[in-house]
Fold:
Amino acid sequence: MARYIVRRVLLSIVTLWLLATIVFLMTWVLPSDPARLILGAQAPEQSVAAFRLRVGLDDSFFAQYFRLIKGLVTFDFGHSWKYETYEVWDYLRTPLAKTSKLAIIAMIITAPISILAGLIAAKFRDRKLDRGIVLVGLAASSIPEFVTGALLAVVFGLKLEWFEPVYSTEAEKLSLWGQLSYLMLPALALALAYFGYIARMMRAGTIRALDSDYVRTATMKGLSSTQVMSRHVLRNAAAPTITVMSVQIGYLVSGIIGVELVFNYPGFSRVLLDAAIDGDLPVLQVAVIVSALIYMVATLMADLLIAWLNPRARLELGAS
Amino acid sequence: MTDTTNLPAAGNEASDVLQRSLTERKTARRERWRLLRRRPGFIIGVVIVGIWVFCAIAGDRITPYDPFTDRDSKYCARPPCPPSGAHWFGTDQIGRDIMSRVMMGARDLLLVAPTAAVLALITGSVLGMVMGYYRGWVDNLLSRVVEAFLALPVVMVGILVLTLSRSSDLLSAISFDSRNVLIIYVVALLFTPIVARTVRATVLGERDLDYVVSARLRGESNLFIMTREILPNITGPIVVELTVRIGYSIFTVATLSFLGVGIQRPSPDWGLAIAESRDLLPADQWWPVTFPALAIATLVVAVNLIADSIQTVYER
Structure:
């Protein structure tokens, strides 16, 4: 197990380095002038030149590249270009926490429901109930999150008035319980998107387990169906589901941007879009790398969890 | 004399085998098509996609009003006006007919998204075939790069690349159409690694099968084996990947447009329309957001129904 963990972590570090390089190359090859963007079209040529010099935009390719990599290693990314008193990380921290809050609420809503739905669908395979769950899952996961969010806001926010249709900073004065009325619809929009993926994987995993020899053996040796379900089926169906959930945490970061914008939620998306429009390169690069990092940590944790749950997977992974 | 009688016989046998395998393939194709037609999901999907494609092609020739300029002050003094007999979907902030705009809004999305998916499929297939066929260090190196790409959130990288290129002097004067070309390139670039991974996995399953080994023993070139032997045998997974990728591509392009970095004004694009009118929600003006949102929802669900049916039929 220890060998496996070390291998897996080392591989992640290589991936992180590669993706930081990709992000750097992307910002390098694009023919844009961030200094001009930051200072505006009217700014005099001297101040643009001075700015380029100050933030190191005139440095060589390798100097700029190593600055980014060094920032990653030391976790010190320097200052925002737009708001020069802010350090990049301090600037990103609060919105990131807000976005995480939304994501966690969405996961809490969706995980038990979709796992249960997947189990039920597998149990009633090819009957009406199963078809219904599969269809809802397909629709829920294929519609972009911002569209789901907009439709939820119209139906449950404006028409039925169950929840607040848009977020407002008023909510931050309330307790977490009071905030739920504001957070519910954005969280629900995300939850619906995950529902599709998780329920589909859970269904597939459960069907595979139900058809397996070990479940037939367990049934034939006289275990009750609850025992078969909890001891044999669930454990084996869990692995692909955990993988999908961890991958979804990564996509969550993408989907959440649209949802935040629909509901005017002051999270990661606003910082990211503002930085993109302003040409605040350090903030933009770090934001993209951090969200990729979240995805990598999530998949790493999932792989370790699966290895811990399932000795067979541990053997296969250790051997490869 | 005996030589010449012998030769055509051998030729006949070979063409017999070829003929048989071709008929087999034809039967399989006909069988898949029959199974597809029996799936209600597939039929519903095709009908809905068909309607949107028709709207995209016909455009302002069939819309009840002009989607760009018509400002209706007769029925509606203070826009936006709610749905009515004159404007079934209501009008937007400046009095344009939303139904006309929704019908017209299919055009750019259906031009950009499937093109990006096809482009990604071509580049991704080439990459995936090379990785899966050659293995070794080429595969190892490219696999790491693919993995790094997969960790990057598609929408975020889209924002990064599209905003930075919008700001540049070089592209600031670009016309509306070349903006769409840029979106196609960016989405295709981001989807290429995903396609490559799928194709690589499929090629890995084929490369040690008898027909590949015998082709290699016959002394065929690698290029011939990849394109003439392996490729025809993995069309199933590639077709499935294409339909799935078109769904994701629509999803991504719509999201990018909603975020303001995708398709630009004056296009009546759905994502863009939602972004422009989402501020009206708190004022209880629901129609400018709802109808484009429903349009996106029906299109992506329809495409995914088709993709799902094709996948089920190919994998049985």
Q: What stands out?
A: Chain B has 13 helices and no strands. The CA atoms of residues 17 and 192 of chain B lie 37 Å apart. Confidence is low (pLDDT under 50) at residues 1-8, 167-172 of chain B. Chain B has one domain: 38-66+93-315.
